[in-house]
Design goal:
Layout (H helix, E strand, L loop, with lengths): L23 E6 L9 E6 H5 L3 E7 L5 H13 L1 H6 L4 E6 L3 H11 L5 E5 L4 H5 L3 E4 L5 E4 L2 E6 L2 E7 L10 H10 L1
Parallel strand pairs: 3-4, 4-5
Antiparallel strand pairs: 1-2, 1-5, 3-8, 6-7, 8-9
């Protein structure tokens, strides 16, 4: 049985000033290290954010056109700029399994730059009330596309895309906002 702590009530979307929902995400580890075994490793979202500045972005799905051509590559390319702005980690969240997220990260050369975090059952998306239901298109429940700047687990900036677009959650927009703080 998996335990999920839902911090938001139905129809209460995550917003600036809120804490990240505490759920279990999964990260595929290609090389075993002390504390991280090879394969999918559980990541407590709230614990992993403690004491860190995180550029987080979520998207509807790995390998989808805008996500693969623009969204993820933008964050990978801006890695050094985010580090220079004081960001400790960049997280990519998607409602996919850890194997898919790991493979997509390898295909996109994300290793060491972007943590590819699987929200396989959409627990994080549901807890943040940022679900995108694409069942009518055969894609099931997904995450809305957004970006956020999270400091010590608190959401400081949130850019939520409207209607599935890609206009405000890109790396350049979030980076400019972080620099302006």
């Amino acid at each position: 049985m998996r335990a999920v702590v839902f911090l938001y009530t139905k129809d209460e979307t995550m917003k600036v000033g809120d804490r990240l929902p505490e759920t279990t995400l999964y990260e595929f580890i290609d090389v075993a290290t002390e504390g991280c075994s090879l394969g999918p490793n559980a990541v407590n979202s709230a614990a992993a954010a403690q004491g860190k500045k995180i550029a987080l972005f979520a998207l509807p799905g790995a390998y989808t056109p805008a996500c693969s051509a623009q969204h993820l590559p933008g964050y990978i390319q801006a890695f050094d700029d985010f580090k220079a702005a004081g960001v400790d980690e960049i997280w990519c969240l998607s409602v996919n399994d850890a194997f898919v997220m790991g493979a997509w990260g390898r295909d996109q050369s994300a290793a060491g730059k972007v943590r590819m975090l699987a929200d396989g059952s959409a627990d994080f998306a549901r807890a943040a009330d940022l679900v995108l239901d694409l069942s009518a298109k055969g894609l099931g429940v997904r995450s809305q596309r957004y970006s956020a700047y999270v400091v010590d687990g608190e959401v400081r900036l949130l850019n939520l895309e409207g209607g599935g677009g890609y206009a405000v959650s890109d790396a350049a927009t979030l980076l400019a906002q972080i620099r302006a703080l």
